[in-house]
From TrEMBL:
The lineage of its organism: Eukaryota, Viridiplantae, Streptophyta, Embryophyta, Tracheophyta. It comes from Ziziphus jujuba var. spinosa. It holds the Pfam family RHD3_GTPase. InterPro entries: G_GB1_RHD3_dom, P-loop_NTPase, RHD3/Sey1, Sey1/RHD3-like_3HB. Belongs to the TRAFAC class dynamin-like GTPase superfamily. GB1/RHD3 GTPase family. Residues 715-727 have a biased composition (Polar residues). Keywords: Coiled coil, Endoplasmic reticulum, GTP-binding, Hydrolase, Membrane, Nucleotide-binding, Transmembrane, Transmembrane helix. Coiled coil: none annotated. This is GB1/RHD3-type G domain-containing protein.
């Protein structure tokens, strides 16, 4: 099957450019893949000079030829193109409409000049078909043809020279060496060849054409007919270039081929870059990588992304290699920049995963390693260094060479986040330590404070200050040892020490305020202990008549008032005050004016627990609630004294003696007989008779309460060492708590207390 030349009309007779036809032709002959390895050969000459015939024989094309038997007339209209068969590299033949044709008239030479300019602009070789007998003649067909060629060449600015090959048709006996100088005059890069007449010497014509054909083989090689490749438009831009050149020519503008070359390169490089970018966005490998990186870090991310990017940039380079270097480099940079902008979010996501992973590893590492007893500051430094190194390694793996993306800002953010977490974690740990030592201090202080404040001794606050100092210093010593590994500033350590000291002081103040709320109960308990028990903790017996109830009452009230003076104010600053003196002189002695102030002299309001007015109110309530105890004790004592002075009448004494003696003698007489029945029986019999006599002895009536019993535990004040808790006294004896007892019952029951 013979190869098709795909003859196509490029420009119609009316000057319209057949763009669709050219695109179809380029696809059919695969011109786009040729790069710069292609050539364009055009033929121009007088009408009916055999141009189409020459091309068909020279390149095996099938342009329409004139039928000599039908008369000479216009055969080719406009411009046609076809692929040269059997010529390497790929060569495109262009058949132009003949000049000086009668169909357009003598005056209409516009299309003739336009087509000539077009042929010279896009062709590597231009065949100028001329009759031999017209050479040298002023008014022959050669003259307007050469005039047209030279006028066109004056308008054409090109860095390379198009080869003009004059084909002398129907050569005569005139030596060829004499014809050639005439044609070379004022023309550069001209070649001349002569052919025999096709009609008269067809075989000779074909033989000469075959020889000429060989000159078109490898025409683009150095020294060939189209060896000058400067400014050649790459095959992929041929269609666009041809259309733009014809457009400029039609607009009757000077044709600047270098500028045109840049324009073609710009358009085609932009088109190719756009194609590659679109292909990149739809690449399956890229889409899979983009989806995967959303879920987490991808090992080898940088290499995978670089491979995808470099593939499309490489394809761009290969497809634009023959276009203007400056243009293609600019467009490549634009493509690269656009592609990197498109890919950059995936890189940011990847680095974001690395940031999150490193930060999480830091958090976990600090918590895990801290349990192993490492110093906190040293641990943070080591863990931070490890995590930053891990982040750097991940960034190196994700690095895209062409992009040169910098992860320094994300690294700086990671460092800030690590520092922030370390600071937060440090604060939390220090807070936990402080809370633990505060709890330890609270435990160590609370119970001793309660005992000391309950004792209400003169040296209570001295003991409290010693307790506070000792426990605080012990806790601080342990605390400073615990925070040594944090490598804190001296100012921070001082602030924490002060916080612990303040907390310990607050524990004391809080406990003191709590005890101040229970001071009335404490005073009543103190009164009961002193009033009901002696110095040896033995209960007092009011029936003995030896107890000075008035003195005991004063001692008990003094002890209670002393307790009130201790609880009245907080004394942690070792500043002397006159609270006790004021209370005793006003409430006990009555030597000073009644308490009417709301502040104590030399005592700050923040340290005041009970104001003078409050102390007066409490004392009044205290006396009212304990006065009944004193009254009842006095009543008991008076009744017992009266009972102890009573003696039975003489007749009653004699009667008891006589009756008792008679009963005794009767039992003794019967004793011998009772023992005859056995020892156990005798004892039982005697007991049954003697018991009623014993039961007749007078007993106290049921209304008088029993004498007080000794408490189960002795009450003692806490020593200054406050190491032991203060024992709680037993409840007051029943007679202290009862509201009233009849004097008659007291009088009749004194025998029980004697």
């Amino acid at each position: 099957m013979e190869e098709d030349c795909f003859a196509t009309q490029l420009i119609y007779g009316d000057g319209e450019f057949n763009g669709d036809g050219l695109e179809s032709f380029i696809k059919k002959v695969n011109l786009t893949d040729c790069g710069l390895a292609y050539a364009v050969v055009a033929v121009m000459g007088p009408q009916s000079s055999g141009k189409s015939t020459l091309l068909n024989h020279l390149f095996k094309t099938n342009f329409r030829e004139m039928d000599a038997y039908s008369g000479r007339s216009q055969t080719t209209k406009g411009v046609w193109i076809a692929k040269c068969i059997g010529i390497e590299p790929c060569t495109i033949a262009m058949d132009l409409e003949g000049t000086d044709g009668r169909e357009r008239g003598e005056e209409d030479t516009t299309f003739e000049k336009q087509s000539a300019l077009f042929a010279l602009a896009i062709s590597d070789i231009v065949l100028i078909n001329m009759w031999c007998h017209d050479i040298g003649r002023e008014h022959a067909a050669n003259k307007p043809l050469l005039k047209t060629v030279f006028q066109v060449m004056m308008r054409l600015f090109s860095p390379r020279k198009t080869t003009l090959l004059f084909v002398i048709r129907d050569k005569t006996k005139t030596p060829f060496e004499l014809l050639e100088p005439i044609l070379r005059e004022d023309i550069q890069k001209v070649d001349v060849v002569a052919l025999s007449s096709y009609e008269e010497k067809e075989e000779k014509f074909k033989e000469e054409v075959a020889q000429l054909r060989q000159r078109f083989m490898h025409s683009i090689s150095p020294g060939g007919l189209a060896g000058d490749r400067r400014g050649v438009v790459p095959a992929s831009g041929f269609s666009f270039s041809a259309q733009q050149i014809w457009k400029v020519i039609k607009e009757n503008k000077d044709l600047d081929l270098p500028a045109h070359k840049v324009m073609v390169a710009t358009v085609r490089c932009e088109e190719i870059a756009g194609e590659k970018f679109n292909q990149l966005t739809l690449d399956k490998g890229w889409l899979a990588l983009e989806k995967a990186v959303e879920r987490g870090p991808i090992p080898g991310f940088g290499k995978k992304l670089s491979s995808i990017l470099e593939r499309y940039l490489s394809e761009y380079d290969s497809e634009t290699i023959y276009f203007d270097e400056g243009v293609r480099n600019v467009k490549r940079q634009q493509l690269e920049s656009e592609a990197l902008d498109f890919l950059h979010p995936a890189y940011i996501t990847m680095v974001g995963h690395l940031h999150s992973k490193a930060l999480e590893n830091f958090k976990t590492g600090v918590e895990n390693w801290l349990e192993e007893g490492e110093g906190f500051a040293a641990l943070v430094r080591a863990c931070k260094e490890y995590c930053i190194l891990e982040f750097d390694q991940g960034c190196a793996d994700a690095f895209v060479q062409l992009a040169g993306w910098d992860a320094s800002k994300i690294k700086e953010k990671l460092q800030r986040d690590i520092d922030a977490h370390a600071s937060s974690f440090c604060s939390a740990k220090l807070s936990d330590l402080i809370v633990n030592y505060e709890r330890q201090l609270s435990t160590a202080l609370t119970e001793p404070l309660e005992s000391l404040l309950e004792s209400g001794e003169r040296d209570t606050w001295t003991s409290i200050r010693k307790l506070l100092k000792r426990e605080t210093e012990a806790a601080l010593l342990e605390f400073l040892s615990a925070v040594a590994g944090f490598e804190l500033d001296k100012a921070d350590i001082t602030a924490m020490e002060q916080k612990i000291r303040d907390y310990a002081r607050n524990v004391v103040e809080r406990k003191a305020r709590e005890e101040a709320g229970k001071v009335l109960i404490r005073m009543k308990n103190r009164f009961s202990m002193v009033f009901n028990y002696g110095c040896d903790s033995i209960p007092r017996v009011w029936t003995a008549g030896k107890e000075d109830i008035k003195t005991i009452t004063k001692e008990a009230r003094s002890a209670s008032l002393k307790l009130l003076s201790v609880i009245a104010a907080i004394r942690l600053d070792e500043k002397p005050d006159k609270i006790e003196k004021i209370l005793f002189s006003s409430l006990m002695d009555g030597t000073t004016a009644p308490l009417a102030s709301t502040t104590w002299e030399e005592v700050p309001s923040k340290d005041t627990l009970l104001t003078p007015v409050r102390c007066k109110s409490l004392w009044k309530q205290f006396k009212a609630e304990t006065e009944n105890n004193v009254t009842r004790a006095l009543s008991y004592q008076k009744a017992c004294r009266r009972k102890n002075n009573w003696v039975p009448p003489m007749w009653a004494i004699v009667a008891m003696i006589v009756l008792g003696f008679s009963e005794l003698m009767l039992h003794l007489r019967n004793l011998d007989g009772e023992f005859r029945n056995g020892t156990v029986a005798a004892i039982l019999s005697v007991s049954s008779r003697f018991l009623p006599t014993v039961l007749k002895i007078p007993r106290p009536p049921p209304g008088l309460p029993p004498a007080p019993q000794a408490p189960q535990q002795l009450h003692s004040v806490v020593s200054q060492s406050f190491g032991n808790q203060t024992p709680q006294p037993n409840p007051m004896p029943n007679f202290i708590s009862e509201s009233s007892v009849s004097s008659s019952n007291i009088s009749s029951d004194c025998n029980e207390y004697s």
